[in-house]
Automatic annotation (TrEMBL):
Its main location: cytoplasm. The keyword Methyltransferase applies. InterPro entries: Alpha/beta_knot_MTases, PUA-like_sf, RsmE, RsmE_MTase_dom, RsmE_PUA-like, tRNA_m1G_MTases_N. Specifically methylates the N3 position of the uracil ring of uridine 1498 (m3U1498) in 16S rRNA. Acts on the fully assembled 30S ribosomal subunit. It is an enzyme of class 2 (transferase). This is Ribosomal RNA small subunit methyltransferase E. Pfam families: Methyltrans_RNA, PUA_4. It is found in: Cytoplasm. GO terms for molecular function: rRNA (uridine-N3-)-methyltransferase activity. GO terms for biological process: rRNA base methylation. Residues 77-237 form the Ribosomal RNA small subunit methyltransferase E methyltransferase domain.
Length: 245
């Protein structure tokens, strides 16, 4: 099994002996119960990781690590963004978790016209914080050095602007005539996928997105829930890209 990953201050990502403490140190010592001799990876979540060996685990939250190697991953190519309509309940966190583990680079929460859930004021801020915390935890679980960005919530107009700048853009829609599996994909640049809400993408939004360059595509013969469609589509796209070859 690969070494566990912990989020660390960028100042710790250097060769030599460093100390991981605070919440991440507590998780390493008290939850994971790491001991001297075990391997760990420290990361800033932005692409840089430090591989080292635990030399001491003290108290409840102090881990001493001898870092022997530091490396930085290149930006992923192509870059994959999923625009995720706001689902009901905790299905948003489930979607973010699975997409993070799959390899999505950016998640855009979308206030779709037919979405039942609405992020407003304090509730919206708490929901966004949960999505971001989920992305961080899932990034560590997936042994990623570069965690996905969860942006501020977007309106349909803002999503359309994002689609205009993509090298390939698609709206996942059950009535799409073209399978996503056969779509021509770029090896560079940015790919943007739009996942609608349980009530579907409205005709007005479909027209707006089509004008912005995003045609409707279907995944397969079955209809997936909004919380799982993004993961399935991301896996399909990444399996056809240089990133998974």
């Amino acid at each position: 099994m690969t070494a566990p990953v912990f989020l660390a201050d960028p100042a710790l990502l250097r060769e030599g002996t460093v100390v991981l403490d605070g919440p991440e140190g507590r998780h390493a010592v008290s939850v994971r119960r790491l001991r001297p001799g075990e391997e760990v990876v420290l990361t800033d979540g932005a692409g840089t990781g430090a591989l080292g060996t635990v030399t001491a685990a003290e108290g409840k939250d102090r881990l001493e690590v001898a870092v022997r190697e530091v490396r930085t991953e290149d930006e992923p190519r192509p870059r994959l963004t999923v625009v995720q309509a706001l689902p009901k309940g905790d299905r948003g966190e489930l979607a973010v978790e699975m997409m993070t583990e799959t390899g999505v680079d950016v998640v855009v929460p979308w206030a779709a016209a037919r979405a039942v859930t609405r992020w407003k004021a304090e509730r919206g801020a708490k929901s966004l914080a949960k999505w971001r915390a989920t992305a961080k935890e899932a990034g560590k679980q997936a042994r990623r050095l570069r965690f996905p960005e969860v942006t501020e919530p977007a309106t349909s107009q803002q999503v359309a602007e994002l689609l205009r700048g993509a090298d390939f853009a698609a709206v996942l829609h059950e009535e799409g005539s073209t399978p996503l599996a056969t779509a021509p994909l770029p090896d560079e640049g940015g790919i943007v996928l739009v996942v609608g809400p349980e009530g579907g993408v409205s005709p007005e939004e479909l027209a707006m997105f089509a004008e912005a360059g995003a045609a409707p595509f279907r995944l397969g013969p079955s209809v997936l829930r909004t919380s799982t469609a993004g993961t399935a589509a991301a896996a399909l796209i990444l399996s056809r890209s240089p990133r998974w070859r």
